[in-house]
Design a protein that fits this description.
single chain, mainly beta, Maltoporin, Chain A, 22-stranded antiparallel barrel, 5-stranded mixed beta sheet, 5 helices, transport, membrane
Length: 653
């Protein structure tokens, strides 16, 4: 196998010297026959990762890694999202995925397990996306797609290099009517890079990302009776209130690299972003919300290799700083959808600063010791401007240490065993700090802490042309944050749930059966449960954590013929789960079968034509795209589409 290097751990290493569960996806895995509209299309083949909610763009995809991130009804929690070195995860710990451009994505790396040592406010892992910069993929391509439920997408890619300059521009337009009522989406995305080489060792890169999402409707969750009456209907309040959101976001990044900064390498990065957001939630009351956000940050990293005694040491030191300012409002809405009086107006400010260091010490040619530490200071502040109900201003500051230790044993050139342990933390986000007793911070909510332990094996069995990646993990979490809804079906609030346990096995296999045939498989067997969790009226000790299947199994059988002819048959098994803390509502397991086929032709010169067709849920299995946790009035279910078809045509030159 060719040497594979991973960079998401920030300290770049060869994969077989990395003491952590890391999965990498190349452009073919991201793009081949895919719509490239949602992350689940490619991440489904990563064990330990589970995604829900691919069909409700207003709520966004819910991503969990080893159970972290599942608590959020919208957005991403507990997982660091990086795109081209820019953190899409905010200082308060939440992230949105709507501005990630999968059309230009060249590589996705996923770290499963403790990541706070190098990234701060995250306990579950890291998803790191790298987009094209024009140096390796010159040329232009135009792609159009159409499919079931009013799916339409068009994209343009162009890039190249000339002298010291290189560039890549990606533009896409997405329109979806949706399988359910009140679920249409209109979205436009621009992602561009401009790179200038400043000699053989230095370069400057500018990044522009623009998102215009004028409409994403929210069909809401149904109860079992409504599901039986019609899976494609929207919740009554979603229709009556015209639930949905609109987003407008701009981001500018600037990055400098110097590969000969003294004896080491220096990387400087900075960015600034603005986001305007407004949403109508699907309930009567204080359900019209919005904000204007300013988000900026910077980082500096220094990489160096020295000799400690007679032992080689590679290390990285760095600092991250970021700040978000949200001007937020909330209004009352009556049952006719009329927006009434303002109920809240406040400025939410989150500031984070972290310093970190990590080093790899080669004890022998086969054994490497990795140690890391990080200190973070996160300050959350609310400045209340709506004073008719009193001044709810306040602030909270969290100072947290994180550490990790790992040992890698490369017992053969293409086989490795490793063990690691690490601590991590998650602060409550501003929305999770909401106070059910009134405004300001909920004084009863605290950060959750995690202690991760992991043992792994990975390698490549040359006679079988098979690569394998096996990881056993055990995580103990203190003060787990869990959501609950008001009894009247209104807002979602959060509480600390005592302790939880997460234990499991993750296995990924890739087997080149023959020249044209390959099988990829990803299996997760886990147990996610409350160890100690009690409310004034109930105890949930020993119950399963809601919203998480404990078994998933994905298989992809791919045939590749001449030129770009291919066919991929994919099966997905998702085990049963529970929807509430009491484990009284069970959601059945299901199997999905997906199929993708495509072909390509050389039309003359550098011009190529590629076509592809995909069928999702080939067997028309009834299942749920999302499960709302602890939903009131039994509204847990967001039904997924049945059999759906899409097709695309791409011309490149």
């Amino acid at each position: 196998m060719a040497t594979l290097e991973v960079t998401a751990p920030r300290l770049s290493r060869e994969l077989y010297a990395t003491p952590a569960a890391v999965s990498t996806l190349d452009r073919e895995a991201i793009a081949q026959g895919q719509q490239r509209a949602r992350l689940d299309e490619s991440l489904v083949r990563v064990p330990g990762v589970f995604l829900q909610n691919r069909d409700n763009f207003a709520q966004g995809q819910r991503i969990s890694i080893r159970g972290f991130g599942a608590r959020a009804p919208f957005g991403v929690r507990g997982i660091t999202i990086m795109v081209d070195g820019i953190p899409y995860t905010l200082p308060d710990g939440q992230a949105q995925l709507d501005a990630i451009d999968l059309d230009s994505a060249e590589r996705i790396e996923v770290i499963r397990g403790p990541s706070s040592v190098l990234y701060g406010n995250a306990a579950g892992g890291v998803i790191d996306v790298t987009t094209a910069d024009g140096r390796d993929n010159p040329g232009t391509s135009v792609r159009v797609e159409a499919g079931s439920d009013g799916y339409r997408k068009a994209s343009l890619q162009t890039g190249g290099a000339q002298g010291d300059w290189s560039h890549h521009v990606s533009l896409s337009a997405l329109n979806v009517d949706g399988y359910r009522e009140q679920s249409s989406t209109e979205k436009y995305l621009l992602n561009a890079k401009l790179r200038r080489e400043l000699g053989s060792d230095r370069a400057l890169t500018a990044i522009i990302n623009l998102l215009d999402n004028p409409r994403s409707e929210d069909p809401g969750a149904l109860n079992a009776r409504e599901v039986a009456a019609g899976r494609d209907q929207a919740a009554p309040n979603s229709l009556a209130l015209d639930a949905g959101q609109n987003v407008d976001q701009q981001l500018l990044g600037l990055q400098y690299e110097d590969l000969s900064a003294g004896p080491g390498e220096l990387y400087l990065k900075g960015f600034i972003s603005q986001r305007d957001f407004e949403q109508q939630l699907p309930y009567v009351g204080d359900s019209r919300i919005g904000y204007q956000r300013d988000y900026l940050g910077a980082s500096a990293e220094y990489h160096h290799e020295i000799t400690l005694g007679s032992l080689p040491l590679s290390y990285i030191t760095g600092v991250d700083v970021a700040r978000q300012d949200d001007e937020r409002f909330r209004n009352d809405v009556n049952d006719q959808g009329v927006v009434g009086q303002q109920l809240a107006e406040e400025t939410q400010t989150a500031t984070s600063a972290g310093v970190f260091a990590q080093g790899d010490l080669a004890l022998t040619e086969q054994v490497t010791l990795s140690l890391g530490a990080r200190f973070d200071s996160v300050e959350l502040e609310v400045d209340d401007s709506y004073l008719s109900d009193g001044d709810q201003s306040g602030d909270r500051t969290f100072n947290e240490w994180s550490g990790s230790a790992g040992l890698s044993y490369r017992y053969r050139p293409q086989h490795q065993a490793y063990v690691n342990t690490g601590t991590a933390f998650e602060t409550p986000t501003f929305s999770e700090f909401a106070n059910p007793a009134g405004g300001g911070f909920n004084p009863l909510v605290e950060p959750q802490k995690a202690w991760n332990r992991e043992v792994g094996l990975r390698g490549y069995i040359e006679p079988l042309a098979m690569d394998y990646d096996l990881a056993l993990f055990s995580v103990r979490v203190r003060d787990e944050l869990v959501p609950y809804e008001e009894e009247n079906g209104g807002r979602t609030f959060y509480q600390n749930a005592g302790d939880t346990d997460r234990d499991g096995i993750e296995l990924a296999l890739g087997w080149q059966l023959a020249t044209q045939w390959r099988l990829d498989s990803a299996l997760t067997l886990a147990r996610y449960e409350f160890d100690q969790f009690a409310t004034p009226s109930e105890r949930f000790d020993g119950n399963r954590i809601p919203g998480l299947p404990e078994q998933t199994w994905v298989n992809q059988l791919t045939w590749e013929g001449l030129d770009e002819r291919f066919a991929t048959l994919e099966t997905q098994y998702v085990g049963d789960m529970v929807a509430d803390n009491a484990n009284e509502t069970e959601v059945d397991s299901y199997w999905l079968v997906n199929l993708r086929v495509g072909d390509g032709w050389q039309l003359g010169g550098d011009t190529r034509l590629n076509t592809y067709v995909g069928v999702r849920n080939l067997l028309d299995e009834e299942h749920y795209a999302n499960v709302r946790l602890n939903g009131s009035y039994g509204r847990f279910y967001e039904p997924a589409p049945g059999r759906s078809v899409y097709g695309g045509l791409e011309v490149s030159f």
